[in-house]
Amino acid sequence: MSAAPTGPATLPPGTLDTLARGRxxxxxxxxxxxxxxxxxxxxxxxxxAELEGERAGAVFEALDASGGYASACLGAGHEVVRRxxxxxxxxxxxxxxxxxxxxxxxxxxxxxxxxxxxxxxFPAGEYHASGRNSGSEGMELALRLALETRFxxxxxxxxxxxxxxxxxxxxxxxxxxxxxxxxxxxNRRHYRLGxxxxxxxxxxxxxxxxxxxxxxxxxAGYLSQFGDRLLAVVVEPIQGDAGILTPPPGYLRSLAERTxxxxxxxxxxEVLTFAKSGRFFAMADDEGPVPTDITVIGKxxxxxAQSVSMVIAxxxxxxxxxxxxxxxxxxxxxxxxxxxxxxxxxxxKLLEHSAALxxxxxxxxxxxxxxxxxxxxxxxxxxxxxxxLELTEAAAGRLVELREHIVRAGVMVEFMAGAGRxxxxxxxxxxxxxxxPPLITGPRExxxxxxxxxxxxxxxxxxxx
Length: 465
Ligand SMILES: Cc1ncc(COP(=O)(O)O)c(C=O)c1O
Description:
Belongs to the class-III pyridoxal-phosphate-dependent aminotransferase family. This protein has helices at residues 15-25, 67-70, 79-92, 102-112, 135-148, 189-192, 216-226, 251-261, 332-347, 350-371, 393-396, 399-408, 443-461, and strands at residues 36-42, 45-50, 59-64, 127-132, 167-171, 207-211, 230-235, 265-270, 284-285, 288-289, 294-297, 309-314, 377-383, 386-391, 411-412, 414-416, 432-435. The chain has 465 residues and is of the alpha/beta class. Helix 3 runs antiparallel to helix 9 (332-347). The site of pyridoxal-5'-phosphate has 15 residues, from helix 5.
């Protein structure tokens, strides 16, 4: 359990003004930001200030069930991260991707070398990795690695048998980032309208197709029509922004097998799911890991201290000379934080712990949210520390207000857009409250989070205790 942060219940003079002025200077792409500002925090416990109206200046505590866009896997101010930053700053130095570094080599051999932590998914000697600043950049590199297979890297002419592969398959409701190469993957009008997308009629152009997620029949039909034109498939093993949607059992394995048989590349976007599903990678089932050609991890890999991503790709996948140079590629300080954080997660069995925590959340939210407030919540689903509480249609229309009540009741939560309308007769998915607390969440804190969500829901409905 994390210690409660201490501090006054109202802000010292001048602080509210600083917060308000800073808010004005921070680009607002939401249209309406939450009327709160973070003052600080330790572990899961955070202190927030009210910024608007009669409450302005009031200070309250909230437990973090969000992980800050699901990234703070060790909570705030974790000792392991503090020590790694200290060690890395004092000893690791800095080096670019042009030259080796001891810290980077230590990390990569620990995870991908012989007997390494992730070699059940990525057999030693068969994969290599690169680092980027963010999940979006990692996904861009993954896309680039797939596109590069269409070319002979020496002559830069289309590679025999691959040049004509000009289709990429993504899924309805997907979120992979917002940079321009990724915009075509987002099949929702809101995200795409008016933004430039690659022109399929131009030389080397590609077309992105979308299928309903988890539908084997649609997949088989698509592959029989376009399999020999397919370059790559891009999939989130648990769809995040779509509302924490898990595919039917066996779907991911079948997707991998069918993709391989079609001669296409399978790209798993595990930016969100990394270290959240009760294991490091969610591309897995009862039989074990599901093989991929490229896997991108982000968010939690930065241990909440840095925004980084890592692209793990089959060794034969690479880019033309100097074609993916990045200032952010596995810098030694970053590697120190990742390595010490991963060791801590393994030593403390935090993944196993999070699997049990997930069961606790699912059971408690089913009873204390879905059953207790059927007018607000439709379903709870997910696993480990990636759970989704889907809103009803009526509640979806008042999402902003509901969220503010839950935060004031003392728990920080975030909402996913929901997949909206899907094809193949799949039902509409409404916005979904994402529960993705740090891995260090204790059972008592989990209880408290659920109780506070219920309290905020009651306050929203104006229902007495
Ligand atoms: C599945 C998935 N892929 C990619 C991204 C993009 O990551 P970033 O925000 O670090 O660019 C996200 C972010 O939410 C994500 O959930």
